[in-house]
Design brief:
The protein has 13 helices and five strands. By secondary structure, the protein is mainly α. The chain has a three-stranded parallel β-sheet. It binds tryptophanyl-5'AMP (TYM).
Length: 332
């Protein structure tokens, strides 16, 4: 489209999104949507690798779409769709499975983490998660994939699979590159600032959810763990708590880290934490009310999804048919 390069990303409609998802993914997408041909999916097929409540999954899927739009992702510019609406994802995933080794999947950090957390349900889908993600990206011949730091390993494997296929046959897939933000690609837990902030954190005070109300957001930031000393300085190694808060402030206030440091020079941790909480809740408030408004208009959401799925299926179908031809599947 318009000679623009293609960009692909997705979020799973699971649990509540955190400000980490916002910082690492959505805030970055917003900046990129004008310059690239963008596909942003709702990865419900990835979501079921962990047991979901069906009614909640349905509701969270729509809620995620409303959130994308409320954050400013424009459905007239970007293709927004639900992964399961485009069967080519599952189809290409099957083919790519035969180009991926079990050992590679067993080594994936996220697989190891999730297997430990869901020991009662270490299913094949959990292990196959990165291959489905590779299929997502490769179907659209995406040049760029904006994601948070935790997805780096999955992106590497997608590149390996693409290159492996291209080498065995002939160039078929664009080999994608990750786009990682310099600031915000990894937002850490407020209670354990050396750990990634996650949707499923054990301590709910460690994660700030986009759905939290203002009082809750401010309370969580007030309780955030800081470091010894009193200086507000970016130094992830020695001051992980303060550095994480500076990162969050910089993303939500649209300021650089040095600007944020200068703003808080000479101030105490108490004032600083309150200011971070305020800037985050100020940014989230309009998004939340807009999301609620959009969510009430089911017809509009269905139209966006229908258009998105049609456009996505068209692009994905072209790649899948190319792949089927190369591997020797007879097509009518
Ligand atoms: P998910 O839903 O786990 O995460 C969505 C996005 O949020 C980023 N993220 C973070 N960024 C900064 N700090 C954090 N604490 C933090 N936590 C999460 C993630 O890096 C991700 O960008 N597997 C993907 C979904 C997916 C996908 C794809 C992405 C499915 N298919 C194809 C790109 C391309 C995921 O983990 O989503």
């Amino acid at each position: 489209m318009d000679g623009k390069k293609t960009l692909y990303s997705a979020i799973q409609p699971t649990n509540n999104l955190t400000i980490g998802n916002y910082a690492g993914a959505i805030s970055n997408w917003l900046k990129l949507q004008n310059d690239y041909d963008c596909y942003f999916a709702i990865a419900n097929m990835h979501a079921i690798t962990v047991r979901q409540n069906p009614a909640e999954l349905r509701q969270k899927t729509l809620s995620m779409l409303a959130l994308y739009i409320a954050c400013g992702i424009d459905p007239d510019k970007c293709c927004l769709y639900i992964q399961s609406h485009v069967p080519a994802h599952a189809e290409l995933c099957w083919v790519l499975n035969t180009f991926t080794y079990v050992g590679e999947m067993e080594r994936m950090t996220q697989f190891k983490d999730k297997s430990a957390r869901h020991a009662e349900n270490v299913n094949m889908g959990l292990m196959d998660y990165p291959v489905l993600m590779a299929a997502d990206i490769l179907l659209y011949q995406a040049e760029y994939v904006p994601v948070g730091e935790d997805q780096r390993q999955h992106l590497e494997i997608a590149r390996d699979i693409a290159q492996r296929f291209n080498n065995i046959y002939s160039p078929t897939f664009t080999v994608p590159e990750g786009l990682f933000l310099k600031v915000g690609a990894k937002i850490n837990d407020l209670q354990e600032p050396v750990k990634k902030m996650s949707k499923s954190a054990e301590n709910p005070n460690g994660s700030v959810f986009l759905s939290d109300d203002r009082d809750t957001v401010i309370r969580k930031f007030k309780r955030a763990v800081t470091d010894s000393g009193s200086e507000i300085k970016y130094d992830p190694e020695n001051k992980p708590g303060v550095s994480n808060l500076l990162t969050i402030y910089s993303v939500f206030a649209d300021k650089t880290i040095p600007e944020a440091e200068a703003e808080f020079a000479g101030k105490g941790y108490g004032d600083f934490k309150l200011a971070v909480g305020e800037v985050v809740s100020d940014r989230l408030a309009p998004v939340k009310s807009e999301q609620a408004k959009i969510l009430a208009d089911r017809e509009y959401l269905n139209t966006v999804l229908k258009n998105g799925a049609e456009r996505a299926a068209h692009t994905a179908g072209r790649t899948l048919s190319k792949v089927y031809k190369k591997i020797g599947f007879y097509q009518i």
